[in-house]
Amino acid sequence: MMSLRELYELLEVTFISFFFLALVFIPMEKVFPAKKNQKLFRPKWFLDFCFFLGQYFLWSSLVLFTLNYFGEYLTSIIPKPFQLTVKNQPFILQIIEVLLLSDFLIYWGHRLQHNVDFLWRFHKVHHSAEHLDWLAAHREHPLDSIYTIGLINLPAFVMGFPLESIAGIIAFRGIWAIYIHSNVRLPIGPLRILIGAPELHHWHHDLDRRAGNYANISPIMDILFGTYKCPNHEPEQFGIIEKSPKTYLGQIIAPLVTKRIWNYFLKKTKT
User: Fold this and answer.
1) Which of 28, 45, 67 is nearest to 166 (CA)?
2) What ranges do the domains of the chain cover?
3) For 78-141, where are the alpha helices, taking DSSP H only?
4) Which tens digits make up the pLDDT trace of 153-207?
5) What b/e sequence results for 60-86 when a residue is b if at least 16 CB atoms lie within 10 Å of its CB, and e otherwise?
């Protein structure tokens, strides 16, 4: 049971995070907008604010608990000699290995989310956003978050790194994920072959469920496996073709039940 002090600290962290991110990304979106006419309080901004609160205030503990649990399990079954060999490598080499392996895993894991219906039912919550900005990056089902964050950090756990030692990488990837969803267009020329950018990820959020650009930090995996896509303009429309709930609670519950049960629930609420 969470104490009042812990509750207060969690609320404090949540709102400090919100205002920090707002101070960083809102000016960027105003100075370098991808879609110039998009307003700060665009349609469904409050829904995405609810996802932000849910992600930081409600589900962060669940995600961290799951990461800790599987991290301890994996580090306990990996042979110690292997872990020592990895840890005896130069630190910079370890970081490169972790980033490359996690990018490879998240590429294929993300591609599966778009091609396997069971995974898509959770992942499409994220893709239901019809307007992209830094706040929309937080529209994510908690089970989808566990899947994604688990895959991203799997190589580090296998290599024997405890959660504390990779906290910096987790934080960097979190900020990066917000950046590539932001309403920002900062063309970087030929470097976009090596470094991801909002202009790449915005095409991933095209109405086409299999639009491509599944990679995380670097688009190299998309280039290697033929799913790279980056026209010199923004997609006409973001979102999904399927109908999706309009409320936060609906978005959380809908993937957990069958379509028949969800339609029955909707029918009952209308009568």
Assistant:
1) 67
2) 42-241
3) 80-87, 91-115, 117-127
4) 777 777 777 666 667 777 888 899 999 999 999 877 778 788 888 999 999 999 9
5) beebeebbeebbeebbeeeeeeeeeeb
How far from the centroid of its chain's Cα atoms is residue 17's Cα?
16
Answer for the pair 241, 209: CB distance below 8 angstroms, yes or no: yes
Extended beta strands in the chain, E state: none
pTM reported for the whole predicted model = 0.87
Distance CA 71, CA 65 (A): 10
**Are 128 and 250 a contacting pair, CB within 8 Å?**
no
Q: String of b and e for 140-171 (b: at least 16 CB within 10 Å)?
A: bbbbbbbbbbbbbbbbbbbbbbebeebeebee
**25 vs 51, 154, 175, 181, 200, CA distance in Å?**
17, 29, 10, 10, 18
Query: Hey, what's the torsion of the CAs at 39, 11, 147, 253, to 10 degrees?
Result: -70
Cα distance between residue 16 and residue 14, in whole Å: 6
Q: pLDDT tens across 65-107, in order?
A: 777 777 666 667 777 787 778 777 787 887 788 888 888 999 9
